[in-house]
Automatic annotation (TrEMBL):
Substrate binds at R99, G100, G101, D102, I103, T104, W105, H106, A171, I172, G173, G184, F185, A186. Residues 61-241 form the BPL/LPL catalytic domain. One of its GO terms (cellular component) is cytoplasm. Pfam families: LplA-B_cat. The active site is at C202. This is Octanoyltransferase. It comes from Propionibacterium acidifaciens F0233. Pathway: Protein modification; protein lipoylation via endogenous pathway; protein N(6)-(lipoyl)lysine from octanoyl-[acyl-carrier-protein]: step 1/2. Residues 259-274 have a biased composition (Basic and acidic residues).
Length: 274
């Protein structure tokens, strides 16, 4: 394992560095619609507006950092790098957002988290992303899933098993304004993965998406996953030193072509899709 590189400002021997900003301590967590049924889930636009209000409080040091955990109604969102050819071919509406990254889907069975965190001077956005990845990697290890990072790509991944390609189980896309982050991660717990077949998720054509349920055959409830993830987020977002999990092994596998509406799906091992 390796220690992540970071120039983070730190309290040493009780003394704060000269560039330390007096920001409210702690991490608040709020939840929306984790146990609700489709039709009563968290509206994406309403959640986006709520993020902006919280960011205004956090970046002006009127409130401590906060993580919003939720389950959205089905929606496609497109980051700033999304290409036209990666959007749904059937004309499904897409919400263009101000985060990094490409297009993705949110919806029932997916745990979405929006960490709104003030970054002290010396803590970069990449370090923030690595910490979100680490929290999810450690959570999934508790469930018996060995996951990690892919160099040059964000998110949390499973390696190829020689038949299936590398598979993303958690997507991450963030924005930083006034040294404060918004947007965040989407962990596939037990969603309908066919929702990803009409787009090119995150603009990546040579890898697949997966979920806890697809990999293990069953999955905990979103409430349970949120309960298990919360202490991991508190630990990693405290910005203390940590040991970074290793990248996944890069194994050869048959060529993968992401299914789209204009071409048939590749053959999938029986029982792999859930």
């Amino acid at each position: 394992m390796r220690m992540p590189k970071s120039g983070a400002s730190r309290i040493v021997a009780g003394e704060r560095p000269a560039d330390w900003v007096n920001h409210p301590a702690g991490l608040e967590v709020e939840r929306h619609c984790l146990d609700a049924a489709p039709g009563a889930l968290y509206d994406y636009r309403a959640g986006w507006e709520h993020q902006r209000r919280v960011l205004d409080e956090v970046c002006h040091h009127r409130a401590p950092d906060r993580v919003i955990l939720c389950q959205h109604e089905s929606v496609y969102t497109a980051g700033r790098r999304t290409k036209d050819e990666d959007r749904p071919l059937d004309g499904t509406p897409v919400i263009d957002v101000d985060r990094g990254g490409d297009i993705t889907w949110h919806g029932p069975g997916q745990l979405v988290g929006y960490p709104i965190v003030f970054l002290q001077r010396g803590v970069g956005v990449v370090d923030h992303v690595r910490r979100l990845e680490e929290a999810v990697i450690r959570l999934l290890a508790d469930y018996g899933l060995a996951t990690g990072r892919v160099p040059g790509r964000t998110g949390v991944w499973l390696p190829s098993d020689g038949l299936r390609p590398e598979r993303k189980i958690c997507a991450i896309g963030v924005r930083c304004a006034h040294r404060t982050t918004m947007h965040g991660f989407a962990l596939n717990v037990a969603p309908d993965l066919e929702r990803f077949d009409t787009i090119v998720p995150c603009g990546i054509t040579d890898a697949d998406v997966t979920s806890i349920r697809r990999e293990l055959g069953s999955a905990p409830s979103l409430e349970r996953v949120a309960d298990d993830l919360e202490p991991r987020l508190r630990e990693l977002l405290a910005m203390r030193p940590y040991r970074m999990s290793p990248d996944i092994p890069r194994n050869a596998h048959p060529r993968f072509c992401r299914p789209r509406a204009d071409r048939p799906s590749p053959r999938t091992p029986e029982g792999a899709r859930s």
